[in-house]
Amino acid sequence: MMAGFFNFLLQRREAGILAMIVLVAVVVGTIEPRFIAMDTLRIVALAVPLILTVAMGQMMVLIARHVDLSVGSIMAMSSIVAGMMFRDLPDLPIMAGVVAAVGVGAVLGLFNGLLVVAFRLPSIIVTLGTLSLYRGLVFWVSDARQVDPQFIPRPLTLMSQTSPFFDIPWIVMIAGLIAVLTHLFLNHARMGRHIYALGSNPAAAPLRGIRVVPVTLGVFVISGALAGLAGIFYASRFGYVNPGITGVGFEFTVIAAVVVGGVSINGGVGTVLGTVLGVVLLGMVSVALPILGVSGFWQEVLNGAVIVAALLVDRIVRERGVRAATDARSAA
Amino acid sequence: MTATPTNQAGRESAPARPRWQVLLIRPETMTLVLLIVAFGVASWLSPFFADATFILESATFYTEYALVALVLTAIIISGEIDLSPAAQMALTACLFGWAHKSGMPIALALPATVLFGAALGALNGFLALWCRLPSIIVTIGTMIFYRGIAQVIAGDRSIGGFPDWFIGVDWRYLMGIPVPVVILTLAAILLGLFMGLTVTGRQIYQIGTSPEAARHAGIRVRRIKMGLFILLGATSAVAGLITASRLASVRYDLASGGELQMVLMAMLGGTYIFGGRGTVAGTYLAAWLLVVIATGMTVANIAVTSQLIVMGAMLIVSIIATNFIYARTQR
User: Fold this and answer.
1) DSSP readout, B55-69?
2) What would the pLDDT profile of B12-41 be if each residue is shown by its tens digit?
3) Which structural domain range is residue B180 located in?
4) Residue B46 covered by a domain
5) Tell me: the pLDDT tens digits for B47-69?
6) Considering only CB atoms, which chain B residues are within 8 Å of A115?
């Protein structure tokens, strides 16, 4: 019975994460009842959209068996470009800033993709290079100056504070919409299915008529564009953009959330639902720590431990899968 | 016997390349040429540059990363990678600072720190080799984990108060050369001889070229790789201690971003990212190349933050160039 339940959790990764979320809520709520309150939910909800938006792109990159370490720097680049536009051209409509941010993100993502495709380099090393390259560009473009709060347009900051209904802030709703669109794209669009096929078996993909180059470029461009959009969310949520702070180390938070959500680092495996739950779980923990009086310094330790643990779980699941398949074959 | 050499199958083999050509297309040669060019450009930009003491003094900052990069080179040659050594430097240094502050005598704290570093390396090795997780991604996990613990230990303050004899290793000289540079050079010679002349050293190359073949040839692949991870951990601890001595204090963000510099040194020195090729000498030369470039940029008044652009671009270009050279000389 217990073993059956454990197997079920391993098979339906989403159920396992959901169980973890409930567990965290119950444990933290018992110790500190303040945690179970609408206010906390709001804080969790506000911690989520930035990570969630970037996580959707990172998830696609991972499913295609690549990694994008440069998303934090891309986010900063988009954020600083939009922020400087708002500062230097006050009459500009906000939408122009949004388009610029997404565009900058897409271009930087395209550059990552081109390097990976053209030179057949491991994406993790390429994006380690562009992580630094783009961050340097951020300092260079901004002249190492922060975009101060008074320059961020009021309507933009209000997106994080006001809500169309149910008290759910705008940016949370937009992030949710992106998650839904990603789900539809991955499951119903041709390219979405091709991303899974490419990641499951990169050698077989071209033989099955999947055009590897456009798909690979596509995931990096999408990842960059979503990181760019998250740059706008950053300006909206925090009300400033700082070249040395915005998005530093953000890629690791995102990767932690994505792998906790059951996306395999070995490609081909991962769902939007799992990733959303992974983001929510990490968001909840980050809100729970200070409420429990645990130093925020533990957050990083947890992120690191969570990545290693998620890799181990993935390993165990895959080995079970192989064993199950072998058993089935020998039984037949 | 004909003039053309024949192999055992009796077929004619391609004539051996002339020795000068073999030397010329080695990636280390590229590094050496770049080093000379960079040196020329830097001295042209500023007349103050071509001053041996100035370069040696500015080198001390990079020796810490270079020391680790030497061992990292061996790890990359064996087909693994470790992105956590900079975090290991921070964690071991913070632990050392904490131990000293809690009253542990330094004579005891020093070896304990190195042992602790070895343990951190062993954990990486265990996860990568026994749990068979891809080292490139699992060491990102441990990188965040180690730096997180450093932050928990040290908080956001710096720990200092080391005795006078411990601090300032970078302005102690041995025959006119700063001690860290001496340490780096000795380490490079030792590791270079180990990789080039010992059986284990050659086996590391074989493991990287074909792990499968190496295992069938009876090479203890896991044991050797584990040894390298442990050595990397211990070396990171030593580098962390040198940094602590240079700065006279430790903080959790010590050596932050160092993993990029270390990988960059290995790549710039012509180590093949997919394993099996590369030399310690190349990494040693690349370390000096970085010293010259970074110092040159500082002398030319380029902000440290903008230097990130150059570092990132160099990493990408050096992998492309190395891959290109190896693709050309494959068979």
Assistant:
1) HHHHHHHHHHHHHHH
2) 666 666 777 666 667 777 788 888 888 888
3) 61-285
4) no
5) 766 677 777 777 878 899 999 99
6) 316
